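Notebook, p. 212. Picked up where the previous page left off. The plan for this session was modest: take the two constructs that came back from the sequencing core last week, fold each one, and keep the raw output in the notebook itself so nobody has to go hunting through shared drives later. Recording the first one now, exactly as returned: residue sequence, then the structure token string.
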Amino acid sequence: MTDLLYLPDNDYQQRFEATVTDTSNDTTSSDGYIVLDQTLFYKEGGGQPADHGEITWDDSGAHVVDVQKSHGDIRHYVDGDLPDEGIVVEGEIDWERRYKHMRMHTAQHVVSWVALQLFDASTAGNQIHADTSRLDLSPIDLDGESIAEITSAANNIVEEARAVTKQSMSRAAVEDRVEDGRTNLDLLPESVDPLRVVIIGDEDLCPCGGTHVDNTEEIGMIDVVDHENKGAETERLTFTLSEE
């Protein structure tokens, strides 16, 4: 099993050393994969794409193009050479890509929280990208006024520079603290205990394994650029972030 070095609160480290535990040419992909005993690379999941970056050793190396979890191991799919098992390698994540995902994922938490507070709408799904992201809210019927209200409230949280903390917490404590409608704990197997949670300020607590910034001021201003009715009282918001 691969140790995830970025959990629970190590989102900013960019380089690490690890030992190769397995390598293979995947018959379902044109890329081989590398398994390490520990990693900083985020595997795809929770609406957040996988990290990219480099794995190097001796006089060789490979570019990490995808990261997926399989039977407890983290497979780093690579374009390049494959190292021998047992050797020590160096990994470095593509920080520009990672940091954009950190800002976007934290913004999604903020918008989800605001929508729950203002309109009692839960987040039914989300997809994070480096430049544009989206989330689905339900039940809700959005118009220009309500979208402006959500955007304004979310950006107030950004400007307030609220602390974002990440920590492990017992499942019982999470169930006691998480607000109704904030997340569906039933989707998480009972065996997952403790849970990694993301807490924004003193209010919003949500189980999440993604990467996040340490303060909302790092997000940048949130701009809702589109919304779409997805039926069944579900609306999709698409948003971007300023680079300032």
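Okay, moving on. Second construct, recorded in the same format:
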Amino acid sequence: MKKNVGGLDRFFRFGVGFVCLAVVFATDHPVWKVVFGIVAVAGIGTGIAGYCPISDLLKINTAGKKEE
């Protein structure tokens, strides 16, 4: 799996993921827990993996160098 998420983009994804995770624990509404939980998992997961399938689909590469 090639990496297409780099540097500042990863930092932003981690930040959004952890903020959404905090909202999951701070809210009592079950629908918001699910929505923010999904966003948190997606943000933290793509930050850790360095790969985002949506960015790949849209041909966006913030990793800097192209890996073939």
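Notes on construct two before I forget. The two ends are 10 Å apart (CA to CA).
Flagging for discussion at group meeting.
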